[in-house]
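On clarity, I found the account of how folds are encoded harder to follow than it need be. For illustration, here is how one protein appears when written out as sequence plus structure tokens:

:::
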Amino acid sequence: MEKHKPHLRRKVLDNLIDYGPVILSVLVSTIAALRATQTGISSEELLQLVLIILVILSTTQLIDRFRLLRNLENNIETILQTREMTVGLDKVFLTTLPNLSDRLRQAKTITHNGITLVGTSNALLTVFSNCLANGCQIHLIMINPEDKALDVASQRFFKHQDHLRLRREAAHALDNFSSLYSSSHEFVIGFSNVVPPYSIWLIDANTKNAEIWVGLYSYRDTIEPWLHLLPNKDGEMFDFFQRQIESLWKDSSMWEGTIP
């Protein structure tokens, strides 16, 4: 309780400084008005009261300026504190994608795009199989292995820039996915003829459990930053990246099950 007293005293003092002169000027003005109606008041006394009122009003104006400066100083301090508390991009982006296996197993819809999807096919084939068994719909998008876009995409990789190797990786991914493709109509792969600027996981779209993971493709670097988005927290950006992958899916041609 004791530690709150200084704050209370400061607040009382601030209010006294802010409103004291105004109250005092009202009182003096009232006294002057009452005295002016009385007989016997001298002009000198009346002049003194007027001067006192003017001094009080001037003091009030001066205090108003000090109050304005004090509020401005407080606002600047608040802005600086807010700036210091703002989360940096290092806290927003992850350098690697977390393991999504458990989350994907619970999903009802999955839409994902990549370059060749070879890593996805190697790591998540069993997870996708379980998802499909639980009634999940899976849409995957990769660069058309026979399109020149894959040659362009190969130039960005850190480990190699061999477009023939990428084609072999794409064929390997399709070979892995062929068993899922033949066993479920809910598993569909789209071929895109563009180099995507990012990889997106759209999970449980248009439901209360919806979420998006966005991976930014780097140029010959080992780090590819990932961003996690939720509709209730990142509304506009969430909608943007959902539209991005949905448009990419819409403009893709469907894989017919043959392996190049």
